[in-house]
């Protein structure tokens, strides 16, 4: 199994998240007061912030703020006003907007990769470093994924403290197109995804704070289990970056490329 095969589907996680197991940016919407102003609002009912890039195509309209613009939408019970579009009543006007979102706060600064993670399992005492995949000419992103060969139904442990953002556990078997996973948000703005966990094995809830070493799920349940895939991401200029990970030598684990 090539490492790139699993990483290719990490970017598409949103299309596989069941509603009952996710907490994410709820909506960006507009309100037209029919007096020359269209208000754009965002709502975030998650437990962590999101960064959106607001883009718009306007005809006979002007935006209060220069577009495109990047905004952080923090968790809140009330909607957040993003910007306004103004128009001249009586003239034909139109607008279309888009708002690609990333988990976390984009800062434009390079991420800190000095943090030392624990291995997400204590089951095997052999560690083989996973080399990074060279940058793609098309996406210009370097992939860093770590595959852990574990026996079936072994405890999967949090590799770092954080908040559970979402998960899926209803896939009967893990494949490249549909798989169970947990995502944990870290205090530095990065977040880890644990892929190929066993169905109905999640032992945490959305919004729960987990400690390093805490059991969060179990490994794939089949007789020949799919490897546990561990990936750490960080908000980037246009898309999330995949970060290299340093593991503590004190708890060796079974990783392979």
From TrEMBL:
EC nos: 3.4.-.-
Pfam families: Peptidase_M23
InterPro entries in the cross-refs: Dup_hybrid_motif, M23ase_b-sheet_dom
Span of the signal peptide: 1-21
Annotated keywords: Hydrolase, Nucleotidyltransferase, RNA-directed DNA polymerase, Signal, Transferase
Occurrences of domain M23ase beta-sheet core (ranges): 148-223
Source organism superkingdom: Bacteria
Entry keyword Phosphoprotein: no
Name used for this protein in its record: M23 family metallopeptidase
């Amino acid at each position: 199994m090539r490492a790139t095969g699993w990483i290719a589907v990490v970017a598409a996680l949103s299309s596989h998240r069941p509603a009952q197991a996710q907490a994410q940016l709820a909506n960006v919407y507009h309100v037209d007061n029919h007096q020359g102003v269209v208000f754009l609002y965002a709502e975030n009912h998650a437990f962590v912030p999101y960064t959106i890039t607001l883009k718009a195509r306007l005809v006979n309209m002007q935006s209060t703020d220069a577009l495109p613009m990047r905004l952080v939408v923090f968790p809140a019970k009330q909607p957040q006003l993003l910007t306004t579009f103004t128009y001249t009543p009586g003239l034909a006007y139109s607008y279309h907007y888009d708002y690609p979102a990333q988990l976390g706060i984009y800062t434009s600064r390079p991420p800190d990769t000095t943090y030392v993670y624990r291995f997400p399992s204590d089951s095997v005492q052999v560690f083989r470093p996973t080399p990074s995949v060279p940058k793609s000419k098309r996406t210009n992103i370097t992939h860093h994924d770590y595959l852990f060969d574990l026996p079936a139904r072994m405890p999967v442990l949090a590799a770092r403290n954080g908040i559970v953002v979402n998960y899926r556990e209803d896939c009967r078997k893990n494949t490249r197109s549909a798989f169970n996973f947990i995502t944990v948000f870290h205090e530095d703005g990065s977040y880890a995804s644990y892929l190929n966990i066993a169905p109905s094995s999640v032992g945490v809830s959305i919004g729960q704070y987990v400690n390093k070493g805490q059991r969060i799920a179990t490994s794939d349940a089949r007789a020949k289990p799919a490897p546990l895939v561990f990936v750490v991401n960080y908000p980037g200029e246009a898309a999330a970056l995949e970060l290299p990970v340093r593991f503590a030598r004190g708890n060796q684990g079974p990783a392979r490329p």
